[in-house]
Design goal:
Blueprint (H helix, E strand, L loop, with lengths): L2 H22 L2 E6 L3 E2 L4 E9 L5 E3 L12 E5 L4 E5 L5 E3 L8 E4 L2 E9 L8 E10 L1 E2 L8 E11 L1
Parallel strand pairs: 2-12
Antiparallel strand pairs: 1-3, 3-9, 4-8, 4-11, 5-10, 6-9, 7-8, 10-12
């Protein structure tokens, strides 16, 4: 094996062993209306992505059709999704791209709101958020991931 091939193999093993740990070190959490929702009202929730130093994720509008945008899909029974509001990202230049890309770094909050009808039957509402994101370092992007967050609130 040539020196170049050896270096590529070592780099690949390093990324597989340590790089995937960085990607899974991200945490994604959610909250819903302080745990209480009134029938016939609009309720607010928030999805929080905590991105470790050394990583970024593509924003909802990453400025490139080839990158996977961060998305939050809210689903559940007994309510209507009113809105999902993505924050603005930061434009950054990376080694793997000739143009600036729009990314999220650090802690990112994605607020959303839902409407619960007056006719809702039940004492608890369950809301699922499917978060799709692609994490990257300054040199490489990892495969996209999906993370489901389930939030509940008492209905009064």
């Amino acid at each position: 094996m040539s020196n170049r091939n050896t270096r590529i193999a070592i780099f690949t093993i390093f990324i597989l062993l340590f790089g995937t740990g960085l990607v899974s070190a991200q945490t994604i959490t959610g909250s819903l209306a302080d745990g209480k929702i009134a029938r016939g009202a609009r309720a607010k929730g928030t999805i929080v992505l905590s991105i470790p130093a050394g990583l970024h994720v593509n924003s909802n509008k990453p400025n490139s059709e080839y990158l996977i945008a961060t998305t939050v899909k809210i689903t559940g029974v007994g309510f209507k999704v009113a809105s999902v509001n993505y924050p603005k990202g930061i434009d950054r230049k990376f080694q793997f791209s000739e143009e600036q890309l729009n990314v999220y770094e650090g802690e990112i909050k994605v607020p959303f709101s839902i409407t619960i009808p007056r006719t809702f039957h039940g004492k608890t509402l369950s809301v699922k958020a499917l978060v799709r994101y692609q994490a990257c370092t300054n040199e490489v992007c990892y495969p996209p991931r999906n993370k489901e967050v389930v939030m509940t609130a008492a209905v009064r």
